[in-house]
């Protein structure tokens, strides 16, 4: 069991979650309509969870909370000095006797996110006693919402079913309005019926057979990585499919998505030599590292090359001196590093990485591979465990094993699965 309490300006809420040995979660949450401190809210959450466990005849329980004060007071490590908490401590002691075995453990707030969310929701959600609140249901979507729009029709029919019915039987869908009928008529102008097969008129008047989702998936696999597949990019695949005489509405976007997610295309892709981020200005790359600049001049008479000023730069740490002469001291002469920064920014290809993303790591030339020139340029995929602002990344393998050394963002690229 884990518990947490929340007390803020909007109200007070508590939450608790019972987790069975099989991994089933049973959440509980409540709003406190009386004034209380954060420690009182923590005790209330703990008591609510203990009572819920007693009602379900649970005999062995492990309790986790992110309040060090409550956990250590219940365990007896700390003394209860606040008079407001004495009665709560006594009540918890009586409830503990209902269990055969119970253990209280402290863990940080970062690992207590579920009950923290429940408590915060209860504290901020204002309701009255007459309001009936339905239980919250949380769904898990494996793909983005737009993936459900075209790939499969809700009635199980292919995407061209309505156009086929209009051309073949001059019939509209039952629930079609005027705009839908006008759209079907406009789309039907670009199709023709060859027997019982619907075909799309190509720009060169070549008929392209319309295929459904299942058949289009097989065509993508054969064209891209089949016996004669060349692992071409998405645009080339779309043109090749049309030359072979097939068509579907989302053909070009599907080809691009399929080629992007191909594992072999990603690990054998060209290395990226462009910088992932602009240069970061360092005021001092090492301790006591400072440069002093000064301009001497104008000097009279001029030098033989017409220069009248001497620009001197001194490294205070190494005592190294650099000097150069100029006819005129301008901003261009003094701020050469800024020109280098601007030149560098023109070659930057911004690549940002976030925790949880899949990436590929560049294989360095020092890593020997028996495959020689047939070796891939990238390895992985890896999971970004932590991303720092300076561009450093901590990666883990898919099974959660952390890599020994962090890597820079210029040595990785995103992996599409």
From TrEMBL:
SUPFAM superfamilies in the record: Ribonuclease H-like
Top-level taxon of the source organism: Eukaryota
Domain RNase H type-1: 1-124
InterPro entries (alphabetical): Integrase_H2C2, RNaseH-like_sf, RNaseH_domain, RNaseH_sf
Official protein name in the record: RNase H type-1 domain-containing protein
Source species: Gossypium arboreum (Tree cotton)
Lineage of origin: Eukaryota, Viridiplantae, Streptophyta, Embryophyta, Tracheophyta
């Amino acid at each position: 069991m884990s518990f947490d309490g929340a007390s803020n300006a909007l109200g007070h809420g508590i939450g608790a979650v019972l987790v069975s040995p099989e991994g089933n979660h049973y959440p509980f949450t409540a709003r406190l309509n009386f004034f209380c401190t954060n420690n009182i809210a923590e005790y209330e959450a703990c008591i609510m969870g203990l009572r819920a466990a007693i009602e379900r005849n649970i005999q062995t329980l492990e309790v986790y909370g992110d309040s060090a004060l409550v956990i250590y007071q219940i365990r007896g490590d700390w003394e209860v000095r606040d008079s407001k908490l004495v009665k709560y401590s006594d009540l918890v002691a009586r409830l503990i006797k209902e269990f055969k075995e119970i253990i209280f453990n402290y863990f940080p707030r970062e690992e207590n996110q579920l009950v923290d969310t429940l408590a915060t929701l209860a504290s901020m959600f204002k309701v009255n006693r007459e309001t009936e609140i339905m239980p919250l249901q949380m769904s898990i979507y494996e793909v983005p919402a737009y993936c459900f729009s075209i790939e499969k029709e809700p009635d199980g029919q292919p995407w061209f079913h309505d156009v086929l019915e209009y051309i073949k039987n001059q019939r509209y869908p039952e629930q079609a309005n005027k705009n839908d009928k006008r759209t079907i008529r406009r789309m039907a102008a670009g199709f023709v019926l060859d027997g019982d097969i619907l075909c799309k008129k190509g720009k060169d008047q070549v008929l392209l057979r319309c295929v459904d989702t299942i058949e289009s998936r097989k065509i993508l696999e054969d064209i891209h990585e089949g016996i004669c597949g060349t692992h071409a990019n998405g645009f080339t695949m779309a043109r090749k499919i049309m030359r072979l005489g097939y068509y579907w509405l989302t053909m070009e976007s599907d080809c691009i998505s399929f080629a992007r997610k191909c594992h072999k295309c990603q690990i054998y892709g060209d290395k990226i030599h462009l910088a992932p981020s602009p240069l970061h200005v360092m005021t001092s790359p090492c301790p006591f590292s400072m440069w002093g600049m000064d301009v001497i001049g104008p000097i009279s008479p001029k030098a033989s090359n017409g220069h009248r000023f001497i620009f001197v730069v001194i490294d205070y740490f190494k005592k190294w001196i650099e000097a150069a002469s100029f006819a005129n001291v301008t901003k261009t002469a003094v701020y050469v590093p800024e020109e280098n920064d601007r030149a560098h920014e023109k070659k930057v290809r911004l690549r940002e990485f976030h925790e949880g993303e899949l990436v590929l790591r560049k294989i360095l030339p020092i890593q020997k591979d028996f495959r020689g020139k047939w070796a891939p340029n990238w390895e992985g995929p890896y999971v970004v465990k932590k991303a720092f602002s300076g561009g450093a990344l901590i990666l883990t393998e898919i099974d959660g094993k952390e890599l020994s050394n962090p890597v820079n963002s210029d040595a990785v690229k995103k992996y599409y699965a």
